[in-house]
Every structure is written in structure tokens, then in C-alpha cells.
Backbone:
């Protein structure tokens, strides 16, 4: 079983989701969706608004997976540098995917507006913060590639980056005004309300334990019920349980943990992220930080929840922001990222009528929402193809070794940085 969601700030501060019940008895729908995160909920919302009968079956609660645990940076595009995307899937497919995801923040904020989703939506841009010479080079590369594709990004020099962030430790920042921050669990819960409003059926605390092909499609079995569906979407990403478990092997699970402070003072808020952008840095063992609406400072770093990570986070935060030298953490939680080998999400048709979407590689708010919307159009024959690749993924070779590499690497980095800071 995955890590609990109960220690998260997002769970403590999100408005209530809809009251749902487990799946009991028998149901027939056109399309069944396994997993109540951004992908599954967006697909359900869009399918239902096209008049398709659709049901979402969630094993735990809405937003239990990556959708309810993430940093909340609603960014454009993918992690992958645009030229690398073209290299991985070809220039034509790369352009199509890039263009689709360039508009993802617009689409997310339009949905928030349309369905009046209360999710602390703030659209003041995000800052990719440069650390060291390599960090600056990376940002220059990204700036050049994104500008060439028409993105309105700005490469900030050290003075402006430091002023915008409120820390002297960064030499540059790539500002993307298209992006923003959201309260991710609140967004997931809001999508669930919207999907219900459009006529989708949603069930929680019901894990799909088994799936069988039938003459008309598929039969899905949960603890207390079953669903007959023409088609099935597995939208379980890194949180594959039971029937979705076979998908685990297609990506490397990477843990990422976050801590949220008590609300900062007025004086601290005047200097730390005064424009409320969300930030992540260029370090190989990445960290992120942002504020929420209550003025809490939220800091994240790669790796599972551990004492070493917490100590490192406190040390790093006080190094970046001396006024936070005595930071007290109220919340501390972990999530799992599904990193595909090519860092691109894939939709696979595993068997006729059985689709799986996975591998967001840490960028799933915009992409998950867009992929859900596209799936609805594609499965109803309104568009010929998706923007993401529909090739089958192989099982990741040496997956466990790679998982350990990231986990131990992050742990060693945090310990090393701490002892360095103590020297
Ligand atoms: C810590 C962290 C930080 C991140 N930060 C960002 C960010 O700032 N910006 C960004 O764009 N992206 C970010 N991401 C990525 C983003 O959160 C994910 O890509 C996205 O949430 C994936 O959504 P999803 O709907 O595909 O899957 P999920 O939200 O993971 O949902 C999958 C659901 O499937 C359910 N499930 C699994 N098996 C079964 C079963 N057998 N039966 C029924 N239900 C089942 C699970 O319970 C789960 O709720 C982050 C991810 C993590 C983990």
C-alpha cells in the first residue's frame, strides 16, 4: 500500500470533495476509468460532456495518487527539453505534443474558471531557478529552444532572479508567465465535482482487482461490485494497485517529499517570493518551493520521507532564506513519480479496448488534464490521434536497480549537503 495522504498540507486545506460511495452491485457503462486523479477525472469530465456514459473507480479517495500530493506547479510543456522531445519522437510528433502542452496552463485555468474550482489558483508564472554554471547553461539552452518555438519565456539575470525569489543563492531564472500554481488536491476534487455535474459516475474506496475481456468489451471486478464497459482506461500512473499492477514495470518510481511551514510573517512574505511564483531549481537532485494562500512556505526535495531529508530541507531553506533559519514544519508528506524511460507520457492499448496512460515523469497537471480531454475526443472518434505517443512501453530493464539509484542518490546527496553545511 502506498504512503498515506493524511500528512499532507493539501489534504488539510482542500475544500471537501464530493461525497461518493463504493461501487456496489452491477453497472454498465460505455467507458470505465480506473483511477481518480487528473487523467481519469479529466477523461471522465470530457467524456460525460460528450454524452458518453462513463464511470471512474478509485481505490482510495479522489486525488490519492500523485494528483493530491504534488507541488502544484501548473507548467507548460514537459520536463524534457523541446529539442530532446523532437529527437525522441520525431520533429512532427514533437511539435504536435509541444504545441498541445504549451497551451496546457491556459486550458487548466479555463477549466478552473468554467467549473468555479476553488483551488488557490494563482497565475503569476513559475521560475526555473539557476544554480551554478551548469544551471545557467541549462536555462540558456531551454530559453533558446522555447523562444524558438514562440514561448513568451524570459531569462532573468542574477539581480532580478534574486529579487523575485528573495534569495541570493541563484544566478538566473527562466520565467514562464503562462504557468502558475494551484492547490493540487483541491483541483482534483474540483474536477470530480465537475465530472459529476456533467453526468459521470464516480466511486471511491473500490479497487479494481480483476479485469476480464467479454464479448462486448470488459468486465471489471471490485470488492463489492462489477462494471461492464465497452472500453477501459487505466489512469493509475505511479499508483498501480491490483489489476493495474502489471503497469508498474513500465516506469521507474521516484519519491519526492514536501514539507510545509507555519504561515510566514508579513515581513518574511514581503521578501520571499513577493509575486508568489512557484519555483524549482536546476540541481540534479532537484528541489522546489512555493507559498500557499495562507502564506505557508512549501519546500520539496527528491527522495522518500526520512529524518535526513527533513534535516537537509531545514538546512537548505535556512541557507537560501536566512529569515527562515528557525523554520518549523507543520506538514511532511511524500508522493511517487512515474518516470518513463524517455520522460514522455505514453498511452498504450494493452489489449483491444484496454488503454493505459502513464509516465508523466513529474509533469502531470497540464499534461494529465490535456491527455484526459484528448482521450475523450479520441475514443469517441472525434480526433484521429493523441498528442502523446501510443507506442507500447517495454518493461524497464533493471528497474529496481534504477529505483535504488535515485533513492540512494538523493539520500546520499542530502547527507553530503548537510555535512558540507556543517563544515
Ligand atoms: C510529489 C510529486 C510532485 C509533483 N509535482 C508536480 C508539479 O508541480 N506539477 C506537475 O505538473 N506535476 C507534478 N507531479 C506529477 C503529477 O502529480 C502526476 O503526473 C499526476 O498527478 C498523475 O495523475 P494521474 O491521474 O495520471 O495519476 P494519479 O493522480 O497518481 O492517480 C492514480 C489513481 O489510481 C488509483 N488506483 C490505482 N490502482 C487502482 C485500482 N486497481 N483500482 C482503482 N483505483 C486505482 C490510485 O489510488 C490513484 O488515486 C508531481 C508528482 C508527485 C508525486
Residues:
Amino acid at each position: 500500500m502506498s504512503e498515506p495522504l493524511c500528512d499532507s498540507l493539501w489534504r488539510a486545506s482542500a475544500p471537501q470533495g464530493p461525497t461518493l460511495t463504493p461501487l456496489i452491485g452491477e453497472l454498465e457503462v460505455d467507458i470505465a476509468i480506473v483511477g481518480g486523479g487528473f487523467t481519469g477525472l479529466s477523461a471522465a469530465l470530457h467524456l460525460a460532456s460528450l454524452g458518453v456514459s462513463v464511470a471512474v473507480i478509485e481505490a482510495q479517495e479522489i486525488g490519492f495518487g500523485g494528483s493530491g500530493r504534488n507541488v502544484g506547479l501548473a507548467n507548460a510543456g514537459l520536463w524534457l527539453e523541446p529539442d530532446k522531445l523532437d529527437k525522441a519522437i520525431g520533429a512532427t510528433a514533437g511539435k504536435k505534443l509541444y504545441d498541445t502542452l504549451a497551451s496546457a496552463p491556459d486550458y487548466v485555468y479555463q477549466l478552473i474558471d468554467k467549473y468555479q474550482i476553488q483551488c488557490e489558483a494563482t497565475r503569476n508564472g513559475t521560475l526555473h531557478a539557476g544554480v551554478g554554471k551548469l544551471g545557467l547553461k541549462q536555462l540558456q539552452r531551454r530559453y533558446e529552444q522555447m523562444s524558438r518555438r514562440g514561448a513568451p519565456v524570459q531569462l532573468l539575470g542574477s539581480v532580478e532572479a534574486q529579487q523575485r525569489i528573495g534569495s541570493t543563492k541563484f544566478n538566473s531564472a527562466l520565467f514562464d508567465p503562462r504557468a502558475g500554481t494551484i492547490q493540487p488536491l483541491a483541483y482534483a476534487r474540483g474536477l470530480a465535482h465537475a465530472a459529476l455535474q456533467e453526468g459521470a459516475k464516480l466511486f471511491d474506496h473500490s479497487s479494481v482487482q480483476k479485469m476480464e475481456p467479454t464479448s462486448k468489451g470488459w468486465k471489471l471486478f471490485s470488492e463489492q461490485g462489477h462494471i461492464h464497459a465497452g472500453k477501459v482506461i487505466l489512469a493509475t500512473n505511479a499508483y498501480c494497485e491490483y489489476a493495474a499492477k502489471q503497469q508498474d514495470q513500465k516506469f521507474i518510481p521516484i519519491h519526492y517529499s514536501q514539507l510545509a511551514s507555519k504561515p510566514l510573517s508579513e515581513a518574511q512574505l514581503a521578501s520571499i517570493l513577493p509575486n508568489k511564483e512557484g519555483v524549482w531549481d536546476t540541481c540534479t537532485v532537484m528541489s522546489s518551493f512555493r507559498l500557499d494562500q495562507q502564506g505557508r512556505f512549501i519546500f520539496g526535495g527528491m527522495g522518500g520521507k526520512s529524518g535526513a531529508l527533513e534535516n537537509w530541507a531545514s538546512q537548505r531553506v535556512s541557507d537560501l532564506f536566512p529569515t527562515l533559519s528557525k523554520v518549523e514544519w507543520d506538514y511532511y508528506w511524500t508522493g511517487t513519480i512515474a518516470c518513463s524511460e524517455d520522460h514522455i507520457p505514453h498511452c498504450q492499448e494493452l489489449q483491444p479496448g484496454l488503454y493505459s496512460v502513464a509516465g508523466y515523469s513529474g509533469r502531470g497537471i497540464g499534461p494529465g488534464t490535456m491527455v484526459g480531454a484528448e482521450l475523450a475526443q479520441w475514443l469517441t472518434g472525434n480526433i484521429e490521434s493523441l498528442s502523446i505517443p501510443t507506442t507500447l512501453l517495454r518493461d524497464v530493464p533493471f528497474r529496481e536497480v534504477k529505483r535504488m539509484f535515485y533513492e540512494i542518490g538523493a539520500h546520499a546527496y542530502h547527507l553530503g549537503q548537510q555535512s558540507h553545511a556543517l563544515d
